[in-house]
């Protein structure tokens, strides 16, 4: 079959339409198979990369939690600002097909740059940050630019009479999005955590596989090129809307008091623009006015990949038969969407109608907001319990101190000017207590009473750091050793451990991937992280021979100190827990995901349907752009709060829940004054006017023709 140019019309276009290959003799064009596969790969690429993004910022670029959250949401926001640019390019310049091709190439380049930035051997930390930011900007332009084009391009492939097939295509298209999301949010965290490269988590692979999927998406889309219907750019209605509104504002501004009053400010554009266009813009503005409170919902919704993922890193991820990764919990939303949509459509909504409750689209959206607020209340309750195992970092002018008494009897430690309580037991470390410092650094004297003898220990402290004071015997004398502690929990759920050498010889141990050289004389090794697990048979080597040491379970997020001592059987490891393990199971996040997904079904899907039904046919793209901008501004809200508020996490969650409830009340009041319209009535109204104008024109022509005769 020969190719026909995009702008061919008439019989050529009809002939091409009739001979378009279909799937298995149905009314589904073969071309949509390429589009669906393309969308699956692209969504896998996007969500797979985004799933590990927060942990990448935290552990690879070594940003703090607030900066990581802010950049995550800045990127998400940019992804929803750029669709407006993509729509302008497609409708005004290149058309949908070429826009998808060119911006997909930008998309691929962004993924490649992002993957290269995750290779530790490429440049220094500044290079990694620069490449990461550049890659994210390119990805945002790529994914955002093609977002308004792909679904619409798929719909263009169908004949006008195949309405049911087109509707089913959009369902299949939506399923491919969620399938790509579920698989990617399961697979890429595995690639990150279970595959080790360059001595740590393999972020280069976790970003590289999504890059490869985006290349496949581009290749598949190009492969179907000969089968597509490619509509030429027809001009962007969004530009016409902006021009009309600008003209009306300018005319209204320049009008004098003596000019005729207009019923609506847009009516000032009647001299240049058609009444139909003006009426359509009025309808759209009424809907856009309702959009103003909506960003707050997205401010909560998009925290699944940032704050909720960070919360998961401080939880117990053991499900018995398998260990979940903190960034894998995000797949629960996409999975629940696939389950909830049919349940709501075929169960919940019909049941509500049977109860004779008039649940209008705007009421559904308000209920969706309440569900999202409840999700953050649930997240607050989880966060309050999660923080119980966290050692709060010392503030400015403070240090933290615990005492490890390795002597053979009770010791009492007093630091003049502090509220430090005496230590009474050998078995467990002293809980961390706060020490007030006059400045950044301070030297304090600790008085240690042991077996009737008093020993003074000179200790040097630096603000915002935590320390352990280790007490041990040398003959009848007590000795002091001050060591700096690691109190921050691992963001990946690993355990931290260190060893104290109380054995009469130097020892070498390998625990997981970490190697420890333990010197005798109560020397303390640096803290190192190891993967969570049972370590019951650790080999311990010395000049006197090799021994097996039982370290037991090294649990999620805990920090341990092991004192290696001699015993009749060889070497004994006395275990002390400096920072408690994560004792809240990650399954407790399931209620908040269930509530938020229920809110998404009632808010997001209903909102799209409402916008579609209330918009004139040629204005649907304008409302789609407005809808996507609410997502963008929602992420901006999170960015501002994360960087500016400086609140405790549970307080921040509660703040977002409260704000959404307030916004829901405002939205409900606005919705109460909204009158639903039938967009088709606009066609009928102006069709009658056009017929009347045509009739008048024909009569005038007939009159002129008669007079000429």
UniProtKB/TrEMBL annotation:
In Swiss-Prot or TrEMBL terms, this protein is called Solute carrier family 15 member 2
Any one Gene Ontology cellular component term annotated for this protein: apical plasma membrane
Give GO MF terms, alphabetically.
Answer: oligopeptide transmembrane transporter activity; symporter activity
**Species for this entry:** Aldrovandia affinis
Query: What are the BP-aspect GO terms?
Result: protein transport
UniProt KW keywords = Membrane, Peptide transport, Protein transport, Symport, Transmembrane, Transmembrane helix, Transport
> Which proteins does it associate with, and in what oligomeric form?
Interacts (via extracellular domain region) with trypsin.
Q: Which CDD domains match?
A: MFS_SLC15A2
- Kindly list the residue ranges recorded as spanning the membrane: 44-63, 69-89, 101-123, 129-150, 171-191, 203-228, 283-301, 331-352, 364-382, 622-642, 654-677
Location relative to the cell: Apical cell membrane
What InterPro entries does this protein's entry cite? MFS_trans_sf, Oligopep_transport, POT_fam, PTR2_symporter_CS, SLC15A2
Bilayer topology term: Multi-pass membrane protein
Keyword Nucleotide-binding part of the UniProt annotation: no
Family recorded in the similarity comment = Belongs to the major facilitator superfamily. Proton-dependent oligopeptide transporter (POT/PTR) (TC 2.A.17) family.
């Amino acid at each position: 079959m020969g190719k026909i140019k995009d702008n061919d019309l008439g019989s050529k276009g009809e002939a091409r339409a009739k001979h378009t290959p279909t799937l298995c003799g149905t009314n589904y064009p073969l071309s949509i198979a390429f589009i669906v596969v393309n969308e699956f790969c692209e969504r896998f690429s996007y969500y797979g990369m985004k799933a590990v993004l927060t942990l990448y910022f935290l552990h690879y670029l070594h940003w703090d939690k607030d900066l990581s959250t802010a950049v995550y949401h800045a990127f998400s926001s940019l992804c929803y600002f750029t669709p407006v640019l993509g729509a302008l390019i497609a409708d005004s310049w290149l058309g949908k097909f070429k826009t998808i091709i060119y911006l997909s190439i930008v998309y691929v380049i962004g993924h490649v740059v992002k993957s290269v930035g995750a290779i530790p051997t490429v440049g220094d930390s500044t290079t990694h940050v620069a490449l990461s930011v550049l890659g994210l900007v390119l990805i945002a332009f790529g994914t955002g630019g093609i977002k308004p084009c792909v679904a619409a391009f798929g719909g263009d492939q169908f004949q006008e009479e195949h309405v049911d097939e087109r509707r089913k295509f959009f369902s299949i298209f939506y399923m491919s999005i969620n399938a790509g999301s579920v698989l990617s949010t399961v697979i890429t965290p595995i690639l990150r955590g279970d595959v080790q490269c360059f001595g740590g988590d393999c972020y280069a692979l976790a970003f590289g596989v999504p890059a490869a999927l985006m290349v496949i998406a581009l290749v598949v889309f190009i492969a179907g090129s000969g089968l597509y219907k490619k509509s030429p750019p027809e001009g962007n209605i969004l530009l016409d809307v902006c021009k009309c509104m600008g003209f009306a504002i300018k005319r209204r501004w320049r009008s004098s008091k003596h000019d005729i009053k207009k019923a609506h400010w847009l009516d000032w554009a009647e001299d240049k623009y058609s009444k139909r266009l003006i009426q359509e813009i009025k309808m759209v503005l009424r809907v856009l006015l309702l959009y103003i409170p909506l960003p707050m919902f997205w401010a909560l919704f998009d925290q699944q990949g940032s704050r909720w993922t960070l919360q998961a890193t401080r939880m117990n991820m053991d499900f018995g038969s398998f260990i979940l990764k903190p960034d894998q919990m995000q797949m629960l939303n996409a999975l629940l969407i696939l389950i909830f949509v049919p349940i709501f459509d075929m169960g919940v909504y019909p049941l509500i109608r049977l109860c004779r409750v008039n649940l209008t689209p705007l009421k559904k959206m308000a209920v969706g907001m309440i569900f999202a607020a409840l999700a953050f209340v649930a997240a607050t309750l989880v966060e309050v319990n999660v923080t119980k195992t966290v050692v709060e970092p010392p503030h400015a002018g403070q240090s933290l101190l615990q005492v490890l008494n390795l002597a053979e009897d009770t010791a009492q430690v007093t630091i003049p000017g502090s509220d430090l309580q005496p230590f009474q037991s050998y078995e467990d470390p002293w809980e961390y207590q706060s020490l007030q410092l006059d400045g950044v650094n301070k030297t304090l004297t600790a008085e240690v009473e042991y077996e009737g003898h008093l020993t003074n220990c000179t200790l040097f402290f630096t603000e915002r750091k935590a320390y352990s004071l280790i007490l041990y015997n040398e003959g009848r004398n007590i000795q002091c050793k001050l060591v700096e502690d690691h109190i921050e929990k691992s963001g990946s759920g690993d355990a931290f451990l260190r060893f104290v050498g109380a054995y009469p010889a130097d020892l070498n141990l390998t625990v997981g991937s970490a190697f420890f050289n333990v010197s005798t004389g109560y020397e303390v090794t640096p803290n190192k992280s190891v993967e969570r697990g049972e370590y019951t048979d650790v080999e311990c080597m010395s000049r006197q021979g090799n021994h097996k040491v039982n370290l037991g379970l090294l649990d999620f997020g805990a920090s341990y100190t092991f004192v290696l001592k001699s015993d009749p059987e060889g070497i004994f490891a006395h275990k002390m827990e400096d920072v408690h393990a994560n004792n809240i199971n990650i399954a407790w996040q399931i209620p908040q995901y269930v509530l938020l997904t229920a809110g998404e079904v009632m808010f997001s899907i209903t909102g799209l349907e409402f916008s579609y039904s209330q918009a004139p046919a040629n204005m649907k793209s304008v409302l789609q752009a407005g809808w996507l901008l609410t997502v963008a501004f929602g992420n901006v809200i999170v960015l501002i709060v994360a960087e500016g508020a400086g609140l405790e996490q549970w307080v921040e969650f509660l703040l977002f829940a409260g704000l959404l409830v307030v916004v829901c009340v405002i939205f409900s009041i606005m919705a109460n004054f909204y009158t639903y319209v039938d967009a088709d009535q606009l066609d009928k109204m102006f069709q009658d006017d056009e017929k009347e104008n045509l009739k008048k024109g024909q009569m005038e022509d007939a009159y002129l023709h008669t007079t000429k005769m």
